[in-house]
Amino acid sequence: MAETLFPNVNWDRMWGATVDTLYMSAISVVATFLIGAILGLLLFLTATDNIWGNKLIHVVLSAVVNIFRSIPFIILIVLLIPFTKIIVGSMIGKNAALPALIIGSAPFYARMVEIGLREIDKGVIEAARSMGAKTTTIIWKVLLPESMPALVSGITVTAIALVSYTAMAGVIGAGGLGNLAYLEGFQRGRSDVTLMATIIILIIVFLIQIIGDSITRKLDKR
Amino acid sequence: MITIKKARKIYPSKKGEVKAVDDVNLEVKEGEIFGVIGYSGAGKSTLIRMLNGLEIPTSGSVIVAGREVSKIKGAELRKARQEISMIFQHFNLLWSRTVADNIAFPLEIAGVPKAERDKRVKELISLVGLDGRGDAYPSQLSGGQKQRVGIARALANNPKVLLGDEATSALDPQTTDQILDLLVDINKRLGLTIVLITHEMHVIRKICHRVAVMEGGRIVETGHVLDVFKNPQQPITKRFVQQVTEPEETKETVDHLLDRYPHGRVIQLTFVGEGVEQPLITNLIRKFEITVTIVQGKISQTQNGSYGILFIHLDGEEEELDNAITFIGQHEVGVEVISNG
Q: Where in the numbering of this chain does the ABC transmembrane type-1 domain appear (chain A) (predicted)?
């Protein structure tokens, strides 16, 4: 059945490409979560009349985030080629896509984190301060747990964006399903390969959404 | 326990300076329940936040439990805050934590070991009457229960002072009374000093020993609750006292009565303490050739004694009326003739 519908698909290579896509997505999601959370926290805490209120740092950080968020991803990859070569040593292969993936999506996620944190009731932070909590305690025991559903639903959206970014990165040589669909599907005119790659990407996206939603629901006790 | 000297808080704003707190002097004794009443914008929120260093006065000093809260910073201030806890109008519980974990939060901050924490949380849960609800999340509780969690959390580190920031303003009247009873109970049992800010005279009447009235950032009147009720000095204080002593419809009823009985006089009697229990009306009718109609009356309990107010209508010969009013004045009762009809 699969042979007749997808005559040109090489299943070993399709599987290998799927693993590559999963690898690139997973690493970049973890890194984006960490870097984005830190950037988002900084954006939130340095805002005027907040705990670390500092206009200069806030404005600079905000500008950096906005710039990287605005550059189209495909252009960002190209711009980052020299940087990638220094860090990874190559611009071909699955690892070569990681710097661009992370730099492209962490600022995007940082904004979501900031929005999530701003939705926390100011009164709760005030209550923690009135109990004599240190800023680090407030971050770990108030800000992060109270914004966790927003952080998780944010990373779900970002992870889905990252899967499609990996496909774009694949076009310029990063490997994965996007690379396979472009080289073997599009350039050789084998549309069944493109279709199969698309189906697998859709499945990955659906799985991410389902998992993300169920975690968010479990965490949210409001 | 608390001494505020010449405290000022001035905020810069586009239209010039805003004096949120203006030259406030205040003394609160140990074990006292002290109320600050004022309309919103009177500066009472800023004032109460000076007591735990959430607001730093622009000038003046604030001393709580022997520490100059307006000066200390960092670790010392955080340590002081563990002894000056606060409850809030909107409870400010962490929704992500259960009732027990919310109460444990200040203990975690104070670095209390887990086993001791669990034991203390258990005690506190039953102190505030929430047995069996330890594993519930705040979203599963009613407003009154949430405030009980707030109170338990505030008591966790055995504070010396409890600050109440409009602690009952988001609750219905019945729940308000339950929470107020709990606060009185805690005050008596633990000897805790309590400072409350509110805009409801009912709260002051029900639990406070002394009261300060705030208007425009200043304290315009201070005194024992019963004295303030008996003899309010400032117009704003009179308005607050009327909140509890006169039901809203009193004025209408009196107007109606004045229309209906063009003769005689409508008189407001104020009873304080002992005076409440005298058979004054009986004596009036027995001694004078007059008719007495009761229009409206109310007795309120305060922490220092009871306080009653009674509107009556007297009718009869002018001379008899004057004599009757003089007679009332000889007792421990305040008399005010509302109108000569």
A: 18-212
Q: What is the pLDDT of residues B104-116, one digit of tens each?
A: 999 999 999 999 9
- Same domain assignment for residues B214 and B281: no
How far is residue A95's CA from residue A111's CA, in Å, rounded to a whole number?
A: 26
How near does any CA of chain B get to the CA of A157, in Å? 22
CB B159 within 8 A of CB B84: yes
A130 contacts on B by Cβ (under 8 Å): 52, 54, 81, 84-86
pLDDT of residue B341: 40
CA–CA separation, B48 and B63 (whole Å): 12
Categorize the per-residue pLDDT at B335 as very low, low, confident or very high, splitting at 50, 70 and 90. confident
Shortest CA gap A182–chain B (Å): 46
Token pair for residue B196? 């409350």
A 91-150 residues inside an 8 A Cβ radius of B: 121, 123-124, 126-134, 137, 141-142, 145-146, 148
Give the CATH number, domain containing residue B268.
Answer: 3.30.70.260
Q: Which two tokens stand for residue A87?
A: 């860090």
**pLDDT score of B277 more than 70:** no
Do B226 and B287 fall within a single domain? no
A79 phi and psi angles, rounded to 5 deg:
-60, -35
Partner-chain contact B92 A126, CB within 8 Å: yes
Residue percentage of chain B with pLDDT more than 90: 61
pLDDT tens digits, one per residue of B189-222: 999 999 999 999 999 999 999 999 999 999 999 9
